[in-house]
Design a protein that fits this description.
single chain; about 70 residues; alpha+beta; two-stranded antiparallel sheet; 1 helix; 2 strands; about 25% helix
Length: about 70
């Protein structure tokens, strides 16, 4: 059950949160199978993030955050 008073729409925010693309991947480690739909979000050069796909998604998340927080300034 959700409390509609706590939604961004209640605050007058019409922006929608970004949805990361799912890219199902399966890997095996020590006899265990690991399923991961979002391996593309890990930038191999971290802590330097230079993967343009990851940066684009982070920009979308940041824009959504700014839109939700704007009424509180």
């Amino acid at each position: 059950m959700t409390d509609d008073r706590l939604t961004p729409a209640h605050l007058g925010v019409t922006a929608r949160p970004p949805v990361a693309d799912r890219q199902p991947t399966t890997r095996g480690f020590h006899g265990l199978t690991i399923h991961d739909d979002y391996p593309w979000l890990k930038d191999e050069s971290y802590p330097v993030v230079d993967d343009e796909n990851v940066l684009d998604y982070l920009r979308q998340e940041n824009a959504y955050f700014e839109a939700v927080m704007a009424p509180h300034e």
